[in-house]
Design goal:
It is a single chain. The chain is of the alpha/beta class. Helices cover 33% and strands 21% of the residues. The chain is built from 12 helices and 13 strands. A 7-stranded parallel sheet has the order 5-6-7-8-9-10-11. A 4-stranded antiparallel sheet has the order 3-2-1-13, sandwiched between helices. A two-stranded antiparallel sheet has the order 4-12. Helix 1 crosses helix 3, helix 5 crosses helix 6 and helix 9 runs parallel beside helix 10. The termini are close together.
Length: 370
């Protein structure tokens, strides 16, 4: 497709409540949307990089600059194709979240031009996907039980608890004892532990968890492989997996039995599909993670999670889990599931009023497409 300009729309969207993990506390979702505009179609993507480089090396302002100064000049505006972007962007190493945002916008535009949904384009087989919810660290056990109880009441089919050293065994015990074995329960460590904590992590085994997500540092593959021999709870890798090659190698060395794929973390939806292919071939459980996306990023994640091979509920909560007002029409929980958008492209668009209310600036890069 041809493109005439790319717009980057910054926003700051307040969270309905602070979201705390071992990596820090979020109260506002700072980010930006990428809009690709051509003479025949347009598309939207979302950059999920956080405001500060705490969770990952990328952060919102840096990703914004990488896109405008380094990625967009690599495009041929007369012939832009999502499938070619990884090769075109190869001269810029890393910066996967920035690349993923551009790819998502181009994919959306391509699908709109072709008159198909993103879910169709990726090969989805489901019309709705099961929704899980991530629960941040809470000030007390009673508050944790109240929060989890409300999400269970709303119908979420899986609960994931954030944990950290010293704030792990007792919260998990309390939730399991209160809600029983019927609750699908996971924990997410966000790299907060070391191999020296193996005994502490093994103490979580009796609680029948689906998995423990990213207990050790993102580069510690050998540590994860060793930890997998010391505990019975399945290890799920998140930050460690940045490509299909990573997934294949980590699975082969026994570092994980489950993979959490976040399109933004791996450079885009197309690489996420390749990771899906690796997991299916290896018989490894897979699910789609989240990064506090607005409706733009959430729509793309839901489309991805509708593919065969996504065997566990993802972090695909309804919009009101995080935002009192989303940037799009809200995603609503329906019997523990989210509907896959059926419209062309990602199936949603930013609401003018929401983008105006929460927007904080726009940058436009123009091209002379032939």
């Amino acid at each position: 497709m041809r493109i005439s300009r790319v717009e980057l729309h910054r926003f700051g969207l307040p969270l309905v409540s602070p979201f705390r993990s071992s990596a820090g506390t979020e109260t506002v979702r700072h980010g930006f949307l990428v809009r690709v505009v051509g003479p025949d179609a347009e598309g939207w993507g979302e950059c999920v990089a956080e405001g500060t480089p705490r969770y990952a090396s990328e952060y919102s302002d840096g990703a914004h600059e990488v896109i405008t100064r380094f990625l967009l000049p690599l495009l041929d505006p007369s012939d832009v194709r999502a499938a070619d972007l990884a090769e075109r962007f190869a001269p810029v190493p890393g910066h996967r979240m920035a690349k993923a945002a551009v790819e998502a916008a181009v994919l959306d535009a391509e699908c709109r031009l072709a008159g198909v949904s993103l879910a169709e384009r990726l090969g989805a087989v489901r019309t709705r996907v099961p929704a899980g919810v991530a629960v941040g660290l809470q000030p007390s056990l009673s508050e944790l039980l109240d929060v989890v109880g409300e999400y269970v009441r709303q119908g979420y089919v899986r609960v994931k608890l954030k944990i950290e050293p010293g704030n792990d065994i007792e919260p998990v015990r309390a939730v399991r004892e209160h809600f029983g074995d019927g609750l699908a329960l996971q924990v997410d460590a966000n790299q907060a532990y070391s191999l020296a904590d193996a005994d502490r992590l093994a103490a979580l085994d009796p609680f029948g968890l689906q998995l423990i997500e990213q207990p050790l540092g993102e580069h510690d593959r050998r540590g994860h492989a060793r930890l997998a021999q010391l505990i019975t709870t399945p290890i799920c890798l998140d930050e460690t997996i940045t490509s299909a090659v990573d997934a294949e190698e980590c699975i082969a060395m026994g570092a994980c039995r489950v993979v959490n794929v976040k399109p933004a973390r791996v450079g885009g939806l197309l690489e996420a599909v390749r990771i899906r292919n690796v997991c299916v071939a290896a018989g490894v459980d897979l699910w789609c993670g989240g990064m506090l996306e607005t409706g733009i990023g959430r729509a793309a994640n839901v489309a991805l999670a509708a593919l065969d091979g996504f065997t566990l509920p993802g972090d695909l909560s309804a919009s009101n889990r995080y935002f009192a007002q989303d940037l799009t029409e809200p995603f609503v929980l329906d019997e523990g599931h989210l509907q896959v958008p059926r419209g062309v492209g990602i199936g949603v668009e930013p609401l003018v009023d929401s983008l105006s209310k929460y927007g904080s600036g726009r940058t436009v890069v123009s091209f002379n497409a032939q």
